[in-house]
Amino acid sequence: MVKGKAERQEKAGQLADSFKSAKTLAVANIGRLPSRNFQLIRRELRDKADIRVVKRTLLKKALEKAGSPIKEAPAQATVILTDIDPFELSRILKGLRRPFPAKVGMIAGEDIIVREGGTGLPPGQDIGDLQAVGVPSKIERGQIVVLKDHLILKQGQKVTAPVAKVLNKLGIKPFEVGLEIEKALFEGLVFGGDVLNIDSESIRANMKTAVGEAFRMAFNLNYPTPDVIKLKAQKASTEAKALAMKLEWVTGDTVKALVSKANAQAQTLESRLGMSGGET
Questions:
Q1: What is the model's pLDDT at position 280?
Q2: CA separation (Å) from 51 to 17, 39, 186, 203, 213?
Q3: Is the pLDDT of residue 240 over 80?
């Protein structure tokens, strides 16, 4: 027993040491992730990340030994060690998620709708299963046809056995599976999975829109920010030059344009009078 404890301590120490070699330490939940999907993720990230399946107790000991601010670990834990920042890692993992069939007890992340049209299912018991969960259907041209779109499960509702059976019969896979990051440590900061799942592109677009709207408001209200002052000065300069040109007021900015204007007017007048520069 003493030997076994020493071996566990040694493994925890080795794992803790490996944490220091990566810029990002992420703890993920493999949960219901099928083995083939897990292997796919490993293949896709083999040159970018070290992914290890670790027992929960061993992981917690290693985190403690490493002095990590991450204290907890999921029951089915995976450690991801990488130099990729956690937001980019989360984006990559999100792209590797795959459709997954409905299982009893799963929670719908969004409304699940059975669409109108042919199902490819032959007449038989299946039509009774569809109608039992409220899907309007009938036999038409040798197959079961859904008469109109039907909301079979609302967001937040649990999948029941009859609903799972119908969705699987129809080949509808309303869920996705992938590695779920629960916590990530990067540059001394811990990020939760909910933060990492934020759509950075949408945030960037919203921030750009907000900055534009704030600038327009400040400009219209003559609020003196550096950007507003710069644009207001440019606008005032342009308007002043236009007014000086209209009044033929000679300034350093208008003299060249006024001379050109005068020359053009003289040439026009000369042309109308039928004169040329060499005639007497």
A1: 42
A2: 15, 10, 16, 29, 44
A3: no
Contact 84, 26 (CB under 8 A): no
Q: Are 197 and 106 in contact (CB under 8 A)?
A: no
Secondary structure, 3-state, 198-267: CCHHHHHHHHHHHHHHHHHHHHHCCCCCHHHHHHHHHHHHHHHHHHHHHHCCCCCCCHHHHHHHHHHHHH
The angle that helices 125-132 and 161-169 make with each other, rounded to 10 degrees, is 130
- Residue 107: phi and psi, rounded to 5, are -100, 130
What does the block give as tokens for 159? 């999948």
pLDDT of residue 279: 47
User: In this structure, are strands 76-82 and 24-29 parallel, antiparallel, or unpaired?
Assistant: antiparallel
| Alpha-carbon distance values, 178 to 32, 54, 233, 253, 266 (Å) | 9, 17, 55, 65, 79
Q: What is the pLDDT of residues 190-221, one digit of tens each?
A: 999 888 877 666 667 777 888 788 878 877 87
Provide the 3-class DSSP secondary structure of residue 59. helix
Domains and CATH numbers, the chain: 2-97+178-198 (3.30.70.1730), 112-175 (3.90.105.20), 204-272 (no CATH)
Average pLDDT value for residue range 44-65:
90
- What's the chain's length in residues? 280
119/162 Cα distance (integer angstroms): 17
pLDDT at 32: 78
* pTM, to two decimals: 0.62
pLDDT at 276 over 80: no
CB 105 within 8 A of CB 84: no
Which string of b and e fits 45-73 if b means at least 16 CB within 10 Å? beeebebeebeeebbbbbbebbebebeeb
